[in-house]
From TrEMBL:
Residues 58-97 are annotated as: Disordered. Belongs to the WRKY group III family. The keyword Transmembrane does not apply. One of its GO terms (biological process) is leaf senescence. The lineage of its organism: Eukaryota, Viridiplantae, Streptophyta, Embryophyta, Tracheophyta. It comes from the Eukaryota. One of its GO terms (cellular component) is nucleus. It is found in: Nucleus. GO terms for molecular function: DNA-binding transcription factor activity; transcription cis-regulatory region binding. This is WRKY domain-containing protein.
Amino acid sequence: MEVIGEWERKLLVQELSAGQEAAKELLSNAENSVAKEAKVQKILASISNALSLLRQTDANDDSPDSGCRSPLSDDSGKSCARPSKDQDRREISKKRKMLPQWTERIGISSDSWCEGSLGDRYTWRKYGQKDILGAKYPRGYYRCTHRNSQGCPATKQVQRSDDDHSIFDITYRGKHTCIYSTHRNPTNSPKSQPENVLDFKAGGLNIKTEAPENAEMIGSCPSFSFPCTPTVDS
DNA sequence: GAAATTTGACCAAG
DNA sequence: CTTGGTCAAATTTC
C-alpha cells in the first residue's frame, strides 16, 4: 500500500510549506547572519521532516489523531511491579508508537550556533548511551526531565559525526507536553559564576572531553543564550 | 539527601 | 543473531 495517508500528506504539506516560507523570507530579507542561519536551519528541519515522513509512510497507526488526542493510556505502568522482572518488566504499548522525529545538525566549530530554532529550552536527562555500528562515537539518549512528573514523551538522541567532532546530530522525537520550568538560576545562586564557558551543557548537550588523549577543545563557544532568533515562531 | 549521570543488562525489531 | 533503544542499579555531583 503505497498510498500515503491523509494525515501524513497533511504533515508533508505543512512541513514543505514551512520550509518554502522560510526560504522565501531568507531570500527577501537578508538580515543578520544569525537570523539567516536560523532560517536555514528551519528549512533543513522542514526538509528532514518531510523526508522522514516519506520514508516511514508505513505509519500504520490506528487512529491518526488530529493532534488532540491525549496519548496517556499507560499510566498504570510501574506501580507495583518491582523486583520480579521475569515476565513483563514493562508493558509497553503493543506496537511501538511512531513518534514524529526530526534531525538537526549543529556545528560547534562554526562561528555561532544557536539552537533557538526548534526550541531546545527544555531540560534533558540522559538515560542511556550506545555504540552505534558504523559510527565512531557513541550515541546519547536523552529524555525530558519532566517525564516522571508530567509525562512528557519527548526524547532526543545526540550523536557526534564520524569525521567532524564538532558536528552534532540531534534527533528529536516526540513533542513536549511539559511546561518548561527551566529556571536556569532561580535565585541566582551566589556560587555560579557567569563565566563558565568550558563545560557548557546546553540543555543536555554536554560536551566533555571524552577522549582523554584527544583532548580537542571545542574552541570557544560564545555564551549561548537561547533567544538567538527573535522571531521564533512564524 | 536528592537529582542527574554512568554503565551493564535486558528486550524488541529486522 | 545482530543492532538499536530503554531500564535500572550503582555512582557521581550539587
